[in-house]
Specification:
By secondary structure, the chain is an alpha+beta fold. It is built from three helices and ten strands. The chain has a five-stranded antiparallel sheet with strand order 5-4-3-7-6, with helices on both faces. The protein has a three-stranded antiparallel sheet with strand order 8-9-10. The protein is globular. The relative contact order is 0.14. The model has no long low-confidence stretch (mean pLDDT 86).
């Protein structure tokens, strides 16, 4: 891959353009940029223990079960009444991907992806968690990972 920085002073402030012939490569580059530009942002999560502030990039995955959303970070499990779609909207990031009706994950925390039953995949996360990727989301994950 050849990269080049071209300065264009006619662009508005805070605008960066990336050109790529390959959509998967472009998506990977945007994901990397997103990872580094959101690294220090925090997210306030309301839970039964009050409001908890977490670093967005510490989020490994999130699962909704019985109307309760559990957010898994590097060190904690935080339960909240927030919906998965509301969390995804707040994160608004290329780093996070919904992988089933009830789960999302941080693609930078994936250690390995393995085949599972019925065309599903299993993502093994770097902290030991397993996340099931349903068939409906397999192509989105492959595109995001560039595979």
């Amino acid at each position: 891959m050849k990269t080049e920085l071209i300065l264009d002073h006619s662009l508005p402030d805070n605008v960066v353009k990336i050109y790529s012939k390959d959509a998967q490569l472009g998506a990977r580059i945007l994901s990397y940029i997103d990872h580094f530009t959101t690294d220090l942002e925090n997210l306030a999560i309301g839970s039964e223990d009050g409001v908890i502030i977490i670093k967005i990039m510490d989020i490994v995955s999130a699962t909704i079960y019985d109307k309760s959303l559990t957010i898994y970070t590097k060190e904690d499990e935080i339960k909240t009444s927030k919906t998965l779609s509301a969390l995804m909207k707040e994160l608004d990031s290329k780093t996070f991907l919904q992988v089933s009706k009830s789960e999302m994950l941080n693609i930078h925390m994936i250690k390995r992806v393995e085949p599972s039953f019925s065309g599903n995949l299993v993502a093994r996360m770097i902290y030991g968690d397993k996340v099931i990727i349903s068939r409906r989301y397999v192509s989105k994950l492959k595109e995001r990972l560039g595979i």
